[in-house]
Amino acid sequence: MSTSHPHPRTHPHVIVVLTDQQRWDTAGVHGNPAGVTPEFDRIARAGTLVEHAITPQPVCAPARAALQTGRWPTATGVHRNGLPLPEDVPTLARSFAEAGYATGYIGKWHLAGQGPGEGAGPVPPQRRAGYQRWLASELLEFTSDAYRTVLYDEEGRAVRLPGYRSDALIDAAIRFAADHHDRPFLLFLSLLEPHHQNATDDYPAPEGYRERYAGRWLPPDLAALSPGAPQGGALRHLGGYLGQIKRVDEGIGRLRDALRSLDIDERTILAYTADHGSHFRTRNAEYKRSAHDSSVRVPLALTGPGFTGGGRIRHPVSTVDLVPTLMEAAGVPVPEGVQGRSFLPLLGGGEDPGRPEEVFIQISESQVGRAVRTTRWKYAVAAPEGEADPWHDADAPRYVETELYDLAADPYELDNLAGLDSHRAVADRLRAALLAWMERLGERPAEVLPAPAGRARAQRRSDPEARELPWEGLPFGHRAG
Q1: What is the pLDDT of residues 181-225, one digit of tens each?
Q2: What fold characterizes domain 13-349?
Q3: By three-state DSSP, how is residue 435 classified?
Q4: What's the average model confidence in pLDDT over 431-444?
Q5: pLDDT tens track for 79-98
Q6: Helix H segments across 194-232?
Q7: Gyration radius of the chain over CA positions
Q8: Residues 6 or more apart from 368 whose CB is under 8 A from it?
Q9: Phi, psi (rounded to 5 degrees) for 273
Q10: How far apart are CA 227 and CA 292, in angstroms?
Q11: CB contact set of 130 (below 8 Å; sequence gap of 6+)
């Protein structure tokens, strides 16, 4: 391991801001009219915006494992919630530390394999993926609420931070930057917002924020599907959800002001993304775990050295690609086994001839599912009931086509084209791409059966053929995330 420190003027600081359950279309640069993300929009316009950023898995722990390792969830072994990240896998923190960086983690972790009944708070040192400085909680939604933020330090001691929760975590990030600005550092800031508060199924925004945004914006998928969702779905919760995002965005502005005051803003790479989105119980019985863009498409923008002036990347990009991208931008060697692909060649309108046309998605817990997404098409399959257990099995020997969407004509995926003879050629091409991805990632050989001819299946919760999610009747801790 290197003990020398990279020169602070040639090696950038790196900050990753991760929100929890934030839809891509909450951002103004993606057309949202509510005005909740002016700071994110500034980052996107002055830096680099990934227009179609797709999570590799629409549930907390698998998505987070990918963001720490640059590997798909099945490759890390974290294919669902409640599984620990292996202690020997190369990670973002270990790679940056070997290059001489100070590393720190603040916020929600969800990779220690612990549920609420097993210890939602402290994370053992060996399960921290190599981060040196630590102020985090395994499941922040169970150790905090909006105005009672409890985290745990390197010694496992409880630390209560003052202020609204996202403010408190961003304040801690500012303190970390101030304490480490004289040498290169990697800071991973993992917020809970805009995730709901599990115990109350509510979105506790600061006073006045919920009211400010209630009724301001309802995307077409939620407008069409929310009336059939339980407990009002987005119609009830969207004001608080947007209010939380607004407060986070204001905090990011404060963080960037702090970097400017420390005279390190132009030497700091800042990446902002989310683990997955939210469909507000319109596609299944909860919030994500589906192949729809409302679950899998997330905001992703970067600024700083290598990214300022990068423009819009229109090619679909997986967030599993963020790890090698940040390493390459910081001059940190990419460890063997990383499956993501740096998207630096795509900046400024560039091309990457070896990059596949589509991104790949794995789905667990609600189904053993797979999907590919191109700029225009979404194609999804799921293991038939009885072929695989969505909680225990990482993959399946057989799948059936469940969804095909033309995103150019139907961006909110309301018209399922799976099984239509008119789109058989498209489905066949995407099926081949999907199987190629599964082989590339080392999944067991599988058969994909066509959807029943001439029959597109609705994926709404009101669909009488929709299966209940597999955690019905399981301990409450299995629903965390």
Answers
A1: 999 999 999 999 999 988 788 899 999 999 999 988 899 999 888
A2: Alkaline Phosphatase, subunit A (3.40.720)
A3: helix
A4: 96
A5: 999 999 999 999 999 999 99
A6: 209-213, 220-225
A7: 21
A8: 382, 383, 387, 388, 389, 390, 393, 394, 395, 396, 399
A9: -155, -175
A10: 18
A11: 91, 93, 94, 97, 103
d(CA 166, CA 271): 17
Of 94, 105, 258, nearest to 189 (Cα)? Answer: 105
334 and 325 Cβ atoms separated by less than 8 Å: no
pTM score, whole prediction: 0.92
Tokens of 421: 């003879």
Amino acid at 48: T
Q: How many CA atoms lie within 13 A of 401 on its CB side?
A: 30
How far is it, in rounded angstroms, from Cα 355 to Cα 69?
A: 19
Supply 9's token pair.
């003027």
| Parts of the chain belonging to CATH 3.30.1120.10 | 359-479
Q: Which two tokens stand for residue 1?
A: 């391991």
Of 202-206, 282-286, 434-438, least confident by mean pLDDT is 282-286
Reduce the DSSP state of residue 105 to 3 states and report it: strand
Q: What is the CATH number of domain 359-479?
A: 3.30.1120.10
